Amino acid sequence: MGKIYVVSISSGNILDMSNRAVKAIRDSDVVVGYTGYVSLIEELLKDKEVYSNSMKGEIERCRYAIKRAREGKKVSIISSGDAGLYGMAGPIFEMAEDLEVEYIPGITAAFLAASQLGAPVMHDMCTISLSDLLTPFEVIERRIKSAAEADFVITLYNPKSLGRINHLQYAINIIRLYRRDDTPVGIVKNALRKNQKVIITTIKEIDYDLVDMSTVLIIGNSQTYIKDGYMITPRGYKY
Amino acid sequence: MGKIYVVSISSGNILDMSNRAVKAIRDSDVVVGYTGYVSLIEELLKDKEVYSNSMKGEIERCRYAIKRAREGKKVSIISSGDAGLYGMAGPIFEMAEDLEVEYIPGITAAFLAASQLGAPVMHDMCTISLSDLLTPFEVIERRIKSAAEADFVITLYNPKSLGRINHLQYAINIIRLYRRDDTPVGIVKNALRKNQKVIITTIKEIDYDLVDMSTVLIIGNSQTYIKDGYMITPRGYKY
Q: What range(s) does the Tetrapyrrole methylase domain occupy (chains A, B) (predicted)?
């Protein structure tokens, strides 16, 4: 019987993958994913059939994974971070009617990035994707406003692509209505991958040119501060 | 030179830990943690000095970890889920002035739970802890209201303890002001541990007696639905 593993590959570095994720890929006949992510896990792909394509090829990838599983193959479909946040778990569970599906969780980008900044999250947090390919921008805007108002630590995913270079600045301007000018912001590009770049700055000094699709931004809450090069959000303990 | 690893142990099952987390613990002389979490990783603790204590012993644990690291030891201080969300990363970075600290990220409870429910998160999400030990309940209440209003998928952490048995019901009643009665709710106790329990229900039918401190609840957004025993939040793809 075929089976689909929806595998969260975290940073894509084997060190950050769970043992369950590595095992699932090793157990698979076929590995399906975005070309950029497949190349991160090359060392696991010897003797595997690999099907990869580009961004916006998500549904095609799901269809292929389901087809091969129906033909009796074990198929891993991979997502970076956790597959259950803006990843492949959703479309697979929506489409894979009669197949066995196992979703293997992983480390989502917010925490990969956090680990390189100090302890920037720590308290109630939210994630918001700035991609409006699948979500009306009014919905995104409302969420940014609510999250800023209620003092959540906010991680912004998909902050920029060629088609939308101004969404990030627009989002930050909304958040600034509710946060101090010196609110710390952590910017992490390629977290725990080759070419990682880590910047700790403030909300009024963000360098927008540094940001691309492989970047997440963590915006501190009203209590977040910078100390010794670390970004720290207190949980509230007294020392 | 001593060093502190802040290690996220995810579910506590070695299968869910990252290879980086396992390596850090193997590399440590001393392992520090809440008694309940230390017992989950017993197989990694042979020949280690272990310091554990009970809930509310967090600061004592940090002090001990820092003391032993200052004495030249390699020390792992562990948190379940991701140590950077309601865990030990914060207090360690706040207190460990002159020490080398490495925070190793992991899978936070929201995604451990999600993986057992289908694809309940998928879209913009937030986490809110209902523990008011360190946070005024008014702050928590405001976040619940904002998150519900802005249609985030909401994961509730620390939903119940002996001292606060009604907070959860109070929180759910706020959320119900903004969500349909049949909004799906996933309840997962001991995610990916022994004695795991998984329930998919609706917001009006939550059985509050099932919930304890080892439980998280994932409340769907306005689009979440139940299909074939899975809880699914669509990302917005057309098929």
A: 3-206
CATH 3.90.220.20 assigned to domain B3-107? The reply is: no
Residue of B nearest to A146 (CA): B146
- Please determine, looking at this structure, whether the domain spanning B110-232 carries the CATH number 3.30.950.10: yes
A126/B129 CB distance under 8 A: no
| Annotated domain spans of chain A | 3-107, 110-232
Q: Measure the CA–CA gap between B72 and B102, rounded to whole angstroms.
A: 15
Question: For A103, which of B8, B95, B119 is closest by C-beta distance?
Answer: B119
Chain B hits for A234, Cβ within 8 Å: 90, 94
Candidate from B15, B58, B126 with C-beta closest to A125:
B126
Question: Which residue, among B94, B85, B183, has the nearest Cα to B128 in the 3D structure?
Answer: B85
Q: What is the pLDDT of residues B23-57, one digit of tens each?
A: 999 999 999 999 999 999 999 999 999 999 998 89
Residue of B16, B126, B230 with shortest CB distance to A93: B230
Q: Judge whether residue A128 has pLDDT over 90.
A: yes
Nearest C-alpha neighbor of A182 from the set A216, A219, A150: A219
Whether the CB-CB separation of B119 and A89 falls below 8 Å is answered with yes
Choose, out of B102, B225, B237, the residue to mutate when testing the contact with A (most A CBs < 10 Å).
Answer: B237
Chain A, residues 38-97, CB within 8 A of chain B, namely 58-59, 82, 84-87, 89-95, 97
Which residue in the block uniquely carries the two structure tokens 């060629």? A162
For the complex shown, is ipTM > 0.95? yes
For A179-224, give the DSSP string. Answer: S-TT-EEEEEESTTSTT-EEEEEETTS--GGG--TTEEEEE--TT-
Using CB atoms within 10 A of its CB, is residue A106 exposed (0-12), middle (13-18) or buried (19+)?
A: buried
Residue B218 predicted with pLDDT over 80? yes
